[in-house]
Design a protein that fits this description.
The protein is α+β, with helices and mostly antiparallel strands. The protein has helices spanning 2-58, 96-102, 104-116, 126-143, and strands at residues 63-65, 69-73, 81-91, 149-159.
């Protein structure tokens, strides 16, 4: 009788283990199948975002890199503070590069004037950087005849 009871318990344990094994396999297959469709959805979303980014990048005009600028900045306490920055201009056409080459000294002079009028305490703030870029763009566009500067990009900005 004791052996019969232990056989029944053993059979119950084996049946439970089989249910757990079969159920676990079913859950694993379900997760795998759904994970594949989630991956497809994720890949599709990433491709759409990438395509959108590529379209935006394709719309950027020719770029005109400028040599680095180093200027003294204004400070409230009169300390010597320097700004070193590298800028690149986005042009509306490649033809404008010739005019920029011919007027390089004048363009650098105007940019130096704009940069040196900035305050050391605020030039690192994004909003101020946007204002400076707009000032440079507006000033250069008022001097140019073969096209327009579409954007001014700050590639590096160091304040010491």
């Amino acid at each position: 009788m004791a052996q019969s009871k232990s056989n029944k318990i053993l059979i119950i344990i084996i049946v439970l283990l089989l249910f757990i094994l079969i159920g676990g396999s079913g859950v694993a297959i379900y997760i795998y199948m759904n994970n594949d469709s989630l991956t497809q959805l994720h890949v599709s979303t990433v491709q759409k975002k990438t395509n959108f980014a590529d379209e935006k990048l394709a719309q950027i005009g020719p770029l005109y890199p400028l040599d680095p600028f180093t200027v003294n900045l204004k400070t409230a306490d009169g300390k010597d503070v320097y700004l070193k920055t590298t800028l690149t201009l986005e042009l509306d056409s490649k033809l404008l590069a010739n005019e920029l080459n011919a007027k390089n000294a004048v363009i650098r002079d105007e940019i130096i004037k704009i940069l040196s009028n900035q305050k050391a305490e605020t030039i690192s703030i994004d909003i101020e950087q946007d204002k400076v870029c707009k000032q440079i763009k507006d000033k250069l566009n008022s001097m140019l005849s073969d096209g327009q500067v579409e954007n001014v990009y700050i590639l590096s900005l160091i304040v010491q």
